[in-house]
Design a protein that fits this description.
The structure is a single chain. By secondary structure, the chain is an alpha+beta fold. 22% of the residues lie in helices and 42% in strands. It contains 1 helix and 12 strands; from the N terminus they run H-E-E-E-E-E-E-E-E-E-E-E-E. The protein has a 12-stranded mixed β-sheet, covered by helices on one side.
Length: 213
């Protein structure tokens, strides 16, 4: 074998080894991504699925806003209770009561104006790549936004291994981060009357209709 053939053979073997290594890494990344997406989807559906759920939360948007409360979700319906605000949405109309100002705002449930912070947290599961790691009794799932995606850019979700319940989220929107701690998670709501606005309780409040804005 000539020196030229030896060099060519070594070159081919090197390329083959690199290709095999890259294929192995790609397969491992693909398996990791699939597992991460499967676990994330299960938890996501526990929160936003048709059976509904309730949970306690505390939110800290650095330098902008912090709050805590309890929220109930069921499809397009929701209710949340905080120290200052309480809101109801029966799927057709959104009401937010401000205990400090003694006002009730009425919004279309699909309007981004109903909540100036929530409207920034645009999220569609298919807009992200997924990666999973483990730490103790938790899964750590990292989501990175694909190129050109608006709204949420990065998510770090902590999920309980045993129950699949969410424990915390760290979310990046534009240039700021929000940390959301979650507790008392329960899946399933049987009484939908909790989503109905109790108008009689707010007879002394000023009603502001913003459905046409």
């Amino acid at each position: 074998m000539t020196r030229e053939l030896v060099i060519k053979s070594r070159y081919v073997l090197t390329l083959l080894c690199i290709t095999l290594c890259l294929s192995t890494i790609s397969a491992q990344e693909s398996a990791n991504s699939r597992q991460a997406r499967q676990i994330f989807d299960k938890t996501y559906n526990m929160v936003f699925g048709p059976q509904g759920c309730t949970l306690k939360y505390s939110v800290n948007i650095v330098h902008l806003y912090s709050t805590e409360g309890t929220i109930w979700y069921k499809g397009k319906k929701q209710k949340f209770v905080e120290e200052r605000y309480t809101a109801w949405c029966d799927g057709k109309t959104f009401y937010r009561a401000d205990k400090k100002k003694k006002t009730v705002e009425i919004h279309d449930p699909n309007s981004p104006n109903k909540d100036k912070y929530a409207s920034k947290f645009k999220f569609k599961p298919n807009d992200y790549t997924y990666h999973i790691a483990e730490k103790g009794n938790d899964y750590i799932i990292t989501l990175e936004a694909k190129k050109g995606v608006d709204g949420v850019k990065h998510v770090k979700a902590i999920i309980d291994k045993k129950t699949r319940a969410p424990k915390s989220l760290k979310v990046k929107v534009m240039l700021f981060w929000a940390t959301i701690n979650i507790s008392n998670f329960h899946s399933g709501i049987t009484d939908d009357s909790i989503f109905n606005f109790p108008r009689k309780q707010f007879g002394s409040y000023k009603f502001i209709d913003k459905r046409n804005e």
